[in-house]
Amino acid sequence: MVRFEMDDPRKYWIGFTMVKGIGSVRIKELLDAFGDLSVAWNASEAELEAMGLPFRLIENLQQLKKSGQLEEVWQRIEDKGIQVLTWDDEAYPRRLREIEQSPPVLYMVGELRDEDRWAVAIVGTRRVTQYGRQVTREVATQLAEAGITVVSGLARGVDAVAHQAALQAGGRSIAILGCGVDIIYPPEHRQLAEAMIQHGALLSDYAPGTPPDAVNFPPRNRIISGISQAVLIVEAGERSGALITAAFAADQGREVFAVPGNIYAPQSKGTNNLIRQGAHLFCDVQDLIESLNLTLVSEHRAAQKVLPANQDEARLFAVLSQEPLHVDDIRARTELPISLVASTLSIMELKGLVKQVGPMRYIAVYEQGVEYHVDAPLDPSEG
To answer: Residue 371 contacts by C-beta under 8 Å, 6 or more apart in sequence?
Structure first.
């Protein structure tokens, strides 16, 4: 057995995700039981059994440790400059972290930026019609021009058109792969993938070297929807994989939009059925942008850059969560004057830190610990 020095904590995360039968649920259980995956990795079989890990999974873990596969994957990561993000990393996409069974490990080539939190997924059939191609190109272009990142799966058809249009418009695009990020599939999209690495990212929860097996693609669709604010289905047959993405989006609380099409066209049967089932009828990009409150993306970005964070914002943000809180309750918990609470919330809403979800009720948009960008130093008296 090759000796594997576990000097990087991410290796433990990768190791456990490579164990057959261990997914996000089991990793959460391991973290709850041991507090750290390094401790879990070095735990005895008796300790693993005591925390409830089935014997077959313990056997799988031991086999992985002896196989040398983890060493091979890590060597590939280092050789190809692949980035590894785990739940513990601040760079891990916040929106994706919130979904059920979010991937414990993400592999990335390229760069995720702060503005990528404004993202819309565009997916659809590989057998795209001229109508679908035109709609996809126009939508992706307008989203990119509005500063919204376009997410898709790098597949032939709608996916490729969406990526290309976003990049050609000077925007950003992210591809979620059903294989390792070091394997471009389909191979004719290599140039497109390279352009995306410069102006976006390739992401996968499959370890480098994983081939594009058909069974990999349905699960990866949860990441396409999970990292996005909404999903637009352009064209989809009755059994299209795009419908799986739509189902994940609905389960995750994302908005689902579908482009209506010819009732006789096979490529429109899936989208027409989605509309009949309650998906938003897509007619105009502006409607999508307005429904997601994305009309002020550029203003949000400018505000985050030029408006300094201060102690008042921190106090307000600390009492907010995903549960709506009335402004009177916010005032009571922070012990700040109501006028200051109201004015600070207005600024924070402009910055994208909070969102008003009802009459005088607010929720937090960012997690605590967000890194603020300021042009002027804060007043030392404010801590």
So the answer is: 90
